[in-house]
Amino acid sequence: MKHPVIFLYIAIFLTGCQNAGDNDVRTAVNSQLSLYPELHLQDLYKAFFQAEFGAEHIVSDTTSAGRYLDMELSVPDHSAVLYEPIGADSTFYRVHLRAVQEGYISRNQLFSAFVGGVHSVEIPQIEKWNKTWPHIDAVIDKMNLNLPDYDREKAAIDSLLATGSYAIHHSEDFSSKYDPHYRIVRKDLFEESLLPLLLQ
């Protein structure tokens, strides 16, 4: 007679965990919307992907990455914030180049933290992501956000993942409206080396 009670408890517990995960996704989505109200689904995809893997998909050569950072630093960054947590678990942060341009941190401090969190993406991780993203997308869909080009971008992302690819650019609207300039930094490196300086 105890087993039905145990199974009921487990079911309630698992449902609670699932809802907690969904709530984290919704919180992350709303956070992005508060900063970027004209974003698209592909911009949310990019944020959640970066939160899962960091920025390894754009770093294959640190020398070239350093030159590219220097080039971007020559362009004024007008981001609304100096940094932002991304994803449901906030395991990575976007650190906007404005933080360097306004003297909070140095170019080398940002670059070191950025490169320190880079790692290669392995096939098992991509296979896991192929299961993670549909769940995130389902939560976004239930939020009824009326995102621009939602159906088209959803299909494009699904097709991308079906081919074994995963990296995606910001939408043209996002790039035009917000002109983002940032680097992705792993949470532990961010909190240890950059956050104390950004809070001064």
Task: Please tell me about this protein's structure.
- This protein is mainly alpha-helical.
- The chain has 9 helices and 3 strands.
- It has helices at residues 2-35, 41-53, 62-73, 98-101, 107-116, 123-142, 150-162, 172-178, 187-198, and strands spanning 83-86, 92-96, 182-186.
- Strands 1-2-3 form a 3-stranded antiparallel β-sheet.
- A hairpin with a 5-residue loop joins strand 1 (83-86) and strand 2 (92-96).
- The protein is globular, with a radius of gyration of 19 Å.
Report the order of strands and helices. HHHEEHHHHHEH
| Biggest sheet: strand arrangement | 1-2-3
Alpha carbon gap, first and last residue: 61 Å
From the spread of the alpha carbons, the general shape counts as: globular
C-alpha Rg, in Å?
19 Å
Number of strands: 3
Identify low-pLDDT runs.
1-18
Reported for the largest beta sheet, the result is:
3 strands, antiparallel
State the secondary-structure class.
Answer: mainly alpha
Beta-strand residue fraction: 5-15%
Helicity, as a percent range: 55-70%
Number of helices: 9
Mean of pLDDT: 87
Oligomer: single chain
